[in-house]
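User: C-alpha cells in, sequence out, please.
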C-alpha cells in the first residue's frame, strides 16, 4: 500500500497557521502594536486605510533589528522572548511564539524598514505570500516601520468574509484602545484614511481613560486600589448611575495584557448587586498584577484568555475590593450609628447659643368691633349686622319669572367623538374584548377561538414598520426642544453617529453639533422623550458598531429594528383596555403580523377544538 501521509509545504502550513493568528485586520494591528511595545518604543503610530484591508502600518522608535534579525523574524517559531520551555511560565512580554510575522507574511504584502540605534544603515525587506521579493540596505530612522497591504490577497474566501470598512474599523479601534489603556506611558497616534482619530500623549492611567472616552468620563470614575500577597489591583470603576444597557467600557488587564474573563466579570457584577438594574452593565478599567508563574497565557491563539492557579481567591478579593471602593467613596448608602450628618451643627455655629423664639400678641384686638380709623391710625372692629342679608336676593324673582326653561343656558362638556361602528358602547372598559395576562400577553377572541399576543413583540412590529416608513418616504414629524439637549460620547461613538446622522434625521432627530465628543440635539421624534434619548443612542451605537454595513438599505433596516426594540412596550408593563385594543388594531394593520422584526412569533391561536379536547 502506497504511503498517503505527506508533509505540508511551508507556505501551506503558514496559511493554515495564519487562520489561527489572523482572523481579521484587527488581529494584525494587535500583533504589530504588541511587537512595537516589546521593542521598547515610547512612541507608536498606527495608520490604516479602508478598514485595514488596503493598508495597516505601524511605526515605532524602539530598538530596531539587525539585517539578520529582520530576515529571521519572518520565520516560524523564531523569537527572542523565550529560550526554553520553562520561560513560558515567566513571561513579561506580549509576543513569544514567533508565529505572528510569519503568518501575516503568508497572506499579505509585507514591507519592513528597520534600523538599530548603533547602526548607520537600516534594512528594507519586502515579502509577498511568504516569498521574499527583495532585501536591501536603506536609510531609515531608529526603530521599525511595518506595512501590511492587501490582506488575504491569496485567500479570496477569507477576504470575502470580512465585514464592511466601518465594522473592521470598529474592531481595530477596540484593539487600539486595549493596547493604549494598558500602556499610558507610551505616546500613541492613530490615523484612518489620512485623518487623525487619536493623539494620546504620555499620561497617567486616569488621564489616558479620559483622553480615549471623553472628558465627561472623569466624573464617572471611582478609583480602586488593593494590594495582597495574591494580587495587586488598581484602576477605576464607573459609578452605578452610569451603568449602560450595552456591554462597553469593560476592561481587564493582567500584567498589562488585556484579557477576557467571564469569571472575573461576574465578581464585579456581584459587587454592584443591588446598585444597578439587572439588565444594565457597569463600566470598569481594572489592572491586575500577579506572579507570572501563577497564570497560563498560552491557552488561546489570541492570548486574550488566561488560566489562574487560584481563581476562587482572586474572585473573592476582586469582589471585596470593588465593593470597598463603592462604599469608601460614598457610592453605596451606609449607616453610621455614631454620627448623623443631618444633625451635625455647622462649624460656624458650634459656639453660638440658640435664640428663643418671640411671640407678640395684640391684647387690644376685638374682632366684633366695627372697623374705624382714628387719629392715631389704630383700627377698631365691629361685627357686621345680619339685617341686610335680604339685599342679596333683590331682583331674583323677576329673572326667574322671565324664563322658566333653560334653553339659554350653555354647559361646558367634553367633546364626544363619533363611533367607528354602529351601536358601539361609550363605555369601552365594560365591553372590552381583550385582557392582559401576567402583564406579558394580550388575550383576545376570534371567530375560531382565542388569540394570545406577546405585547412586546407586537409593539416591536408596529414601531418597526412605522419607523421604516418614515425613513423611506422621509415624512417624520419632529418636536422642537425649548433647550437643546447636550450629550457626551467617546470619539469612536461620535464617528458612528456621524455615519447614521442622515438616517436619524429622517425619523425626526435634529442635530446642531456632532463633534469633539459632544452631541447637541434640538429636535426629537414624537415617540421619544428626553429621558429616553441617551438610552436610545447608546443602543443604536452598540448595534451599529457590530452590524453596520455599507448597504444603505441594511443601515435603514438596522436603525428601524434598534429603535423598535428600544422603545417597544416591555414585559411587565400594564396596559389598560383601550391601549390593548389599540395595539391589537395596529398590529393587524401591519403588512407582516406573524413575526417580530427579529423573526420571532408574535401570537399563537387556540381554536375551539383545542379547548374542547382539554375537556375530554
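Assistant: Sequence out:
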Amino acid at each position: 500500500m502506497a504511503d498517503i501521509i505527506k508533509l505540508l509545504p511551508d507556505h501551506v502550513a503558514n496559511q493554515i497557521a495564519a487562520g489561527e493568528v489572523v482572523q481579521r485586520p484587527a488581529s494584525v494591528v494587535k500583533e504589530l502594536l504588541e511587537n512595537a511595545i516589546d521593542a521598547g518604543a515610547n512612541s507608536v503610530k498606527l495608520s490604516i486605510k479602508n478598514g485595514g484591508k488596503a493598508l495597516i502600518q505601524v511605526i515605532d522608535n524602539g530598538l530596531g533589528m539587525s539585517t539578520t534579525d529582520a530576515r529571521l523574524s519572518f520565520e516560524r517559531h523564531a523569537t527572542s522572548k523565550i529560550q526554553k520551555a520553562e520561560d513560558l511560565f515567566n513571561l513579561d512580554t506580549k509576543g513569544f511564539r514567533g508565529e505572528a510575522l510569519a503568518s501575516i507574511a503568508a497572506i499579505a504584502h509585507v514591507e519592513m524598514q528597520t534600523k538599530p540605534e548603533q547602526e548607520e544603515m537600516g534594512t528594507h525587506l519586502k515579502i509577498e505570500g511568504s516569498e521574499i521579493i527583495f532585501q536591501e540596505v536603506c536609510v531609515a530612522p531608529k526603530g521599525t516601520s511595518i506595512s501590511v497591504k492587501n490582506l488575504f490577497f491569496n485567500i479570496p474566501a477569507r477576504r470575502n468574509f470580512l465585514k464592511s470598512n466601518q465594522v473592521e474599523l470598529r474592531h481595530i479601534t477596540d484593539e487600539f484602545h486595549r493596547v493604549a489603556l494598558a500602556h499610558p506611558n507610551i505616546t500613541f497616534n492613530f490615523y484612518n484614511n489620512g485623518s487623525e482619530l487619536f493623539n494620546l500623549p504620555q499620561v497617567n492611567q486616569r488621564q489616558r481613560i479620559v483622553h480615549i472616552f471623553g472628558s465627561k468620563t472623569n466624573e464617572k470614575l471611582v478609583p480602586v486600589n488593593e494590594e495582597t500577597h495574591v494580587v495587586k489591583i488598581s484602576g477605576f470603576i464607573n459609578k452605578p448611575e452610569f451603568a449602560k444597557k450595552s456591554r462597553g467600557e469593560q476592561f481587564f488587564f493582567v500584567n498589562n495584557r488585556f484579557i477576557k474573563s467571564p469569571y472575573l466579570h461576574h465578581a464585579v457584577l456581584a459587587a454592584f448587586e443591588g446598585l444597578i438594574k439587572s439588565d444594565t452593565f457597569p463600566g470598569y478599567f481594572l489592572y491586575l498584577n500577579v506572579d507570572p508563574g501563577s497564570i497560563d497565557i498560552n491557552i488561546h491563539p489570541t492570548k486574550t484568555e488566561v488560566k489562574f492557579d487560584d481563581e476562587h481567591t482572586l474572585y473573592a478579593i476582586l469582589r471585596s475590593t470593588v465593593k470597598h471602593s463603592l462604599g469608601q467613596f460614598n457610592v453605596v448608602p451606609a449607616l453610621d450609628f455614631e454620627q448623623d450628618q443631618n444633625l451635625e451643627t455647622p462649624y460656624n455655629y458650634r459656639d453660638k447659643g440658640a435664640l428663643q423664639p418671640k411671640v407678640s400678641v395684640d391684647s387690644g384686638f376685638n374682632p366684633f368691633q366695627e372697623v374705624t380709623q382714628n387719629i392715631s391710625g389704630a383700627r377698631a372692629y365691629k361685627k357686621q349686622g345680619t339685617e341686610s342679608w335680604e339685599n342679596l336676593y333683590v331682583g331674583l324673582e323677576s329673572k326667574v319669572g322671565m324664563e322658566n326653561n333653560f334653553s339659554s343656558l350653555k354647559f361646558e362638556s367634553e367633546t364626544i367623538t363619533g363611533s367607528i361602528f354602529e351601536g358601539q358602547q361609550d363605555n369601552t372598559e365594560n365591553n372590552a374584548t381583550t385582557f392582559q395576562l401576567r402583564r406579558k400577553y394580550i388575550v383576545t377572541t376570534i371567530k375560531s377561538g382565542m388569540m394570545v399576543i406577546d405585547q412586546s413583540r407586537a409593539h416591536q412590529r408596529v414601531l418597526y414598520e412605522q419607523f421604516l416608513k418614515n425613513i423611506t418616504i422621509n415624512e417624520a414629524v419632529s418636536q422642537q426642544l425649548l433647550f437643546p439637549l447636550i450629550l457626551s460620547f467617546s470619539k469612536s461613538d461620535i464617528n458612528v453617529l456621524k455615519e447614521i446622522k442622515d438616517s436619524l434625521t429622517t425619523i425626526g432627530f435634529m442635530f446642531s453639533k456632532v463633534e469633539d465628543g459632544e452631541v447637541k440635539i434640538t429636535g426629537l421624534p414624537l415617540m421619544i422623550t428626553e429621558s429616553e434619548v441617551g438610552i436610545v443612542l447608546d443602543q443604536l451605537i452598540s448595534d451599529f458598531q457590530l452590524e453596520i454595513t455599507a448597504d444603505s438599505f441594511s443601515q435603514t433596516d438596522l436603525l428601524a429594528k434598534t429603535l423598535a426594540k428600544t422603545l417597544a412596550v416591555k414585559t411587565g408593563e400594564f396596559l389598560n383596555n383601550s391601549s390593548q385594543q389599540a395595539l391589537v388594531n395596529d398590529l393587524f394593520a401591519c403588512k407582516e403580523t406573524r413575526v417580530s422584526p427579529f423573526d420571532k412569533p408574535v401570537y399563537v391561536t387556540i381554536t375551539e377544538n383545542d379547548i374542547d379536547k382539554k375537556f375530554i
